[in-house]
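User: Show me a protein chain along with its predicted structure.
Assistant: Here is one chain, sequence first, then structure tokens.
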Amino acid sequence: MDALTTAAARALAAGDPLAALKYIALRDDAPALALRGIAMAQLGDLARAKELLANAARAFGSREPMAHARCNVAEAEIALVSRDLGRPMEGLGAARSTLEASGDLANAAHAGYLAARRLLLIGRLDEAERILDELDVGALPMTSRAGFELVAAGIAMRRIRAKSAREALVRAESAAAAIGNAALKAEVDRAVQAFEAPAARLVAGDRERLLRLEEVEALIASDTLVIDACRNAVRAKSTIVSLASRPVLFVLARLLGETWPEDASREELLVRAFRAREADESHRARLRVEIGRLREAIRPLAEIHATERGFVLEPYGPGAVAVLAPPVEDEHGEVLALLADGEAWSSSALALALDVSPRTVQRALDTLAENGKAEWFGQGRARRWIAVSVPGFPTSLLLPAIGVVG
């Protein structure tokens, strides 16, 4: 690079995009386009940044594979910030391999960190953790180390490992303080606040209270039989029975848990599970069938006994029964929990994160918009959704990971 592009690169590394633009704002060669794109990203004009980086990548072409790969990584980072988690980020693996082969270990490590962060956002915890384990943390740029620790903390929180999450957040705070970047410090502060906020609500008998993540961890490590309404599962220590694909069974299990140690009446069960306010014999027959299926499903954890007025849950051993519910239960609460991170999400990214169809997410977003809880801006593929007013303590900490119950 010539002296002007070198000076611009140093200004960007120091977090001064305006100074960088003074050197290269009027230039259209490939290195200048790339640096202008990064500067616009730092200034928050992501659409212009994306356009400039795409132009730079085309200008570099196949003749300069390392520079082309760096542009791809920068584009992927913009897509991550824009919550466009599909196609724009699919080239990260190839870019990372190119950078490693070219000896650019810092940018290769940064590409790996971005890939792990995307996988965390869409709930693929095993893959994200595998990438983090492979990364050479020492090769990461200083500005990426705080983000690396935030990903590690996010994985630990989703796996309900409070101690590991807290340790990673402390490291992230230290890294952000050493860098002195205000935006990065604010991001770390938001992660710490999310960790400290209530992660779930405990319902035991006629009592309710909010739980922080370490209290949730202690609960599921105890002898308590937990009816987990955050992940639609029944669990006792390490034994977990998922009912995520069997919603009627989970509704029955939850009501049995809420009424424990008393029995739940047949009328309550019929209303909750089948919305049958005027039950006939067909409803009662269906209830017997579904209770039988639930009894078989949770046999490793508890028994269900018939009583004169209904059914009662009887866990094995001396432990109690408790229901673990989200802090705030609302229609389309999972979508609202993701929007609560303060970022603008695409509907396709929400569908990826929740492992549902785009149409399902779109219906949820339309309902939230009608109720004044979400709003959109932009058109077509550029449309993004944000939360308007989220009541209580929405959290994505206990959303189920894709393919993982616990």
